[in-house]
Amino acid sequence: MEERDKAIALLDSGVGGLTLVRELRNLLPGENIVYFGDTARMPYGPRPAAQVQSFALEIMDFLYTAQDIKMVIVACNTATAVGLEHYRKHFPVPILGVLEPGAKAAVNLTRTKRVGVIGTEGTIASRAYPRTICQLDESVQVFDRACPMFVLVVENQLIDTPETLRVAESYLEPLVRENVDALILGCTHYPLMEHVIAQVMGESVVLVNSAWFTASTAREKLAEMDLLRSGSCGWQRFFVSGEPANFEQIGRRLLGYDLKAYRVTF
Ligand code: DGL
Does 55 sit in the ligand 1 pocket, CB within 6 Å? Predict the structure, then answer.
């Protein structure tokens, strides 16, 4: 198989990384995509960093050995935050994360230099966002907050309920009070409930969905390596570690077409 025809591999703990599949499809419709959602072991957020690293490596090993791939995107902020450099030592393909593209976008977008970050407990505890933002522009102040319930809300299809709005208010009001003008959705699940987050944050706060910025980074990297696949008919293949039905349902709603997910157990 020609190198450029190989797939871009994505991994996440569940459905969150599908927000990135959607952006890749729009930006690079000719690319083939292989996706792994570790639905049997999600959420990753409360797990120790070493365990998240070992799950991510296990999945990458499957993707690298059983699929023909030319690039890996860790479509999970938690797995990116705790181990991107570590994963890069193990596989001879470019490995991109979702954290830096979102951080860069927020630094460019903020006018008041007050940026909010929301993510899982693991992402927030790693301090990876404040560190990256400070390296990009040390005058930017970062206000971060873990929102552990959001992943469960999305995975269990409970987004448009009054309870979710109340949970969102209690997580986000401290950030509203800090007057942030940009908020990084530092978990790939959060764009699926962006309208609820926007309702609480108000119109003056720009929400940064790192999926688009990551897709654009992937395009730059593939172009640099002369590995872009042109055309408009890339295929997608989905794997999950748990029951496929819920994943397929959320995927259909998000991507706008039927998809089939195959179950893989380790
Ligand atoms: N979607 C993932 C992230 O971006 C993981 C969420 C979780 O499993 O806790 O962090």
Answer: no
